[in-house]
Amino acid sequence: MRLPLLERIAMCLVVTLSCVLDLGQKLLCTVPQPADVSRAEYVNRFGCWSDVAALWNNRGLAQHVFPYVHGTWRGDPPVLGGGTVEYPTATGVWVWLTALPVDSARGFLVVTAVVAAVLAVLVTLALQRIAGRRAWVFAATPPLALYAVYNWDVLPVASTVAALLVATAPPRAWSPLLRWALAGALLGLGGAFKLYPLMFLGAMAVAALLDSDAPWSERVRRTAVTVGSGVGVVLVANVPFALVNYEGWSSVFRFQAERPIGPSTLTIWYYGLLPWSADLDGPLQGTMATLATVTTAVGVLAVLAVTVLRALRTGRTPWIQSSAAMLCVYMVANKVDSPQYVLWLLPFFVVLRIGGWWVTAYLVTDVCLTVGFFRNGYYDAVGQTGETWAGQMLTAAIWIRAVLLVVFVVRFLRAEAVGRAADRPGGAATLPAGRRSLEHPAPA
After folding, report:
1. Does position 439 have pLDDT exceeding 50, yes or no?
2. Are 47 and 374 in contact, with CB atoms under 8 Å apart?
């Protein structure tokens, strides 16, 4: 349902204000700290850390070196160099482009915030078109005010929501195959920004093949265009860099693979295996990395298996629910679960009905985790030893978040889609590719 114009404007203003608030808070870290205060004490006192400012200072963005082409992975320990950042290629190029007009970390933060605000407004309008008033869950909750300029995660979020919009509320003139191809390409673009949307491409491909609303030959064609367009975008974003400078391109994957699981990764593996995991150079690091990889893969494949079984039984694939469930598996089991990952979840809180109290519990836990993390870092920086309320709140929030994510795996798989994300009243959400649903979409 299309909301009144004034309400949509109000949503956009709230989103913009959230991004401005986050920018103002992050700008505190672009000025020197007082002479008698350490950098760690200053940053953690104000909680103003952001990858945007940090990468400007640590990855040579001020020199505007085109990333990956001149990248290296050398040294002891090895470090990224040559303009390369620790993100997939599309994000790296985006970072390079947005750094071109400025010559300081402060200016870079401002440009990044402006772009993030524009994308967040577009995401809000898309979610409003899909799910109506529920878009307020994205627009008016704390995550944007905390993480809009934390890094560049709004890019894959925007790609994912754009794919949802194409899948559920496209222009009438678009053909079925065009919709499948464009939705797949948008998820591929999300994967070029950050890998996790590629899981959603897998769920969408299952829907393309197993939804029984078309002849088998048409299902094969739409599966081919969905997978082909998504994988094609990923290849276009990666192959040229790999051919020009394989070391620079692969250094990103080496960096992430060799990144130790420590207190800043905020993962159950580190906090669940203390005190042994506290040795960041110890033998347990390899074991934890293997456990994270295996459990993530098994969990994602298990969700896909459930999705396939439901599709075979009912003839309709709950690909949106499956995507949300896989995302929760990834967040709880992977080696890193950064606070800004909540931005990945927000669109699914909008388009799937899992209960307002569950959503509230997760968002409150996320705020507590962030406050506890930075305040605990402040106490460490000033030399305060022993247990503190901040450390206790951080640990509790990590485990509560993990429990909630496990619960969400089940609840998302059983959830009802809302608004245009619902293929039929009370039914499973799927990419509506049948001739009837495509030729006669729901009115605006």
Report:
1. no
2. yes
Pairing of strands 416-417, 352-353: antiparallel
pLDDT computed for residue 431 by the predictor: 46
Taken as a whole, the chain contains a residue count of 444
Q: What is the pLDDT of residues 251-272, one digit of tens each?
A: 888 888 888 999 999 999 999 9
Strand partners, 78: 75
Partners of 417 in the β-ladder: 352
pLDDT digits (tens, 9 = 90+) for 105-134: 999 999 999 999 999 999 999 999 999 999
pTM of the full predicted structure? 0.92
Give the rounded percent of residues in the chain with a pLDDT score beyond 90.
Answer: 72
pLDDT, mean of residues 159-180? 90
pLDDT in tens, 61-78: 888 889 898 877 766 566
> Any idea where the domains of the chain sit in the sequence?
5-439
| Unique residue bearing structure tokens 């990945």 | 344
Pairing of the two strands 78-81 and 72-75: antiparallel
* Cβ partners under 8 Å of residue 243, min gap 6: none
Instruction: Report phi then psi at 443, rounded to 5.
Output: -65, 155
Whether residue 188 contacts residue 195, with contact meaning beta carbons closer than 8 Å, is answered with no
For 381-394, the pLDDT digits (tens) are 988 878 899 999 99
Q: Residues 6 or more apart from 5 whose CB is under 8 A from it? A: none
Query: Residue 378, exposed/middle/buried by CB under 10 A (0-12, 13-18, 19+)?
Result: buried
